[in-house]
Amino acid sequence: MKEQVSWIFEVSINDGELDNFKALMKEMVDSTAANEPGTLAYEWSISADGIQCHIHEWYKDSAATVAHLTTFKANYAARLMSMCMATRFVVYGNPDSSVHEALEGFGAIYMSPIGGFVR
Predict the structure, then answer these.
(1) Name one Pfam family in it (predicted).
(2) Which one, 7, 61, 75, 97, has least CB within 10 Å?
């Protein structure tokens, strides 16, 4: 658990972009499932009105996190961010400096663990 990194990325989907957003989400989910074994969870949840989306991502370690971010930036970031606006980005765990560097400019809030467990 100490090496794992997770986050919840919250976005507000732009008017008229829901169908494009869902199509890109499917592309990203399929690619991540097929090519990133260090991704432990990659879940997208949408509000009933189709405006808010929360993206929960969980990685086995900082290396897997950076691998995902490298692919995201190269292939998806510009397209995704043209369809939505980031509203909150909270990172959990103990990411190393490489993750902090990779997330620079995303406005991430870092939360350090102080107790609890995962089964």
Answers:
(1) ABM
(2) 97
